[in-house]
Amino acid sequence: MKSADQTTGEAQQPAEPDSEIGPSALLDAVSKSFGRLRESEQKVARVVGAAPDWVIHATVADVARRAGVSEPTVMRFCTALGFSGFRSFQLLLAQGLALGIPATQSVITSADSVAQIVSKVFDYSVTSLDHARRVMRLEAIEAAVSALSSAHEILFLGLGTSGVVAQDAQQRFFLFDVPCSAPMDAHLQFMAASLAGPDTQVVAISHTGRTLGVLDSVKAARANGAKIIAITGSESRLSELADIAIIVETLENTDFYTPTISRLAHLVVIDILATAVAVHHGPDKIEKLRRMKAQLAVFARGDGHTPPTDGSGQA
């Protein structure tokens, strides 16, 4: 006798999701699980990723036909993700779509066209950034803006891709007439942190919150009385050390082909902080920044630039 999940046309009884996966992370979980699924189960994953709106109304038989697999394969796919059956998977998928998860997941294969890759990368990036926005604690952002607005000196810490974010942050906050630094070398970061004092605002960036070089520098800065703002992906050792912890939770995908979403999200947070600090400084500071940007535009175009000469008047 077929179970309710295996029926092809009969009405199915409502079920509660029984997986530990949250509704907003289901498509991401499908993406992350892709590499460990059987080849036949991967076909089901592709159907789910390409048409989740259709899947939530389909039967097991419908999905099996569309994927070109057997009905038991659809059931094994659901089990591999931690569900007891298809109906439970369907219910959580419907909840995720109701939260605004877009219809395309990010499983990228070697068979994808450039157009498909463009669509998948954009969709996955937008989804993850929207998820980060939804779960971000605004009170942490507000506290960080207040601290940065009154800082006498700012030290940005980060290694690897987080170091790139730190460099971008230095460029942004340099415009506010506040001494800023963002050493890329771990030893220079530790030296700068060791010289930090009570007037220094340290911004430590690490998605994992476990990067030893960053943690060591944060500890050195704290020992000297510096205040710490952490930008990190979850509750971690770094967030524990921070006076203000900005948790940037993203749908990070470790698939080889997918973009590093955490870096994009951290750059967005830097933009948010810089914009809010500029507004906090008032119209005089904003006007000063406007004049600087106008002058920079002239400089970049080379308007009025006199070419160097060799002393004879020849360029």
N-to-C order of helices and strands: HHHHHHHHEHEHEHEHEHH
How far apart lie the N and C ends?
A: 91 Å
User: Percent helix among the residues?
Assistant: 40-55%
What is the spatial order of strands in the main beta sheet?
2-1-3-4-5
- The CATH superfamily name of the largest domain is Glucose-6-phosphate isomerase like protein, domain 1
What number of domains? Answer: 2
- At the third CATH level, what is the topology name of the largest domain? Rossmann fold
In one word, what is the shape? elongated
Question: What number is the mean pLDDT?
Answer: 82
User: The biggest beta sheet, please?
Assistant: 5 strands, parallel
Name of the CATH first level of the largest domain: Alpha Beta
- Second rung of CATH, namely the architecture of the largest domain: 3-Layer(aba) Sandwich
Count of alpha and pi helical runs: 14
Task: Please indicate the percent range of residues in DSSP E strands (runs of 2 or more).
Answer: 5-15%
Overall radius of gyration? 25 Å
Class based on secondary structure composition and strand pairing: alpha/beta
Uncertain residue segments:
1-17
The counted number of beta strands is: 5
Describe this structure in words.
The chain is an alpha/beta fold and 315 residues long. It is built from 14 helices and five strands. The protein folds into two domains: 92 residues, Winged helix-like DNA-binding domain superfamily/Winged helix DNA-binding domain (Arc Repressor Mutant, subunit A, Orthogonal Bundle), CATH 1.10.10.10; 164 residues, Rossmann fold, CATH 3.40.50. Helices cover 53% and strands 8% of the residues. Helix 12 links the parallel strand 4 and strand 5. The N terminus is likely disordered.
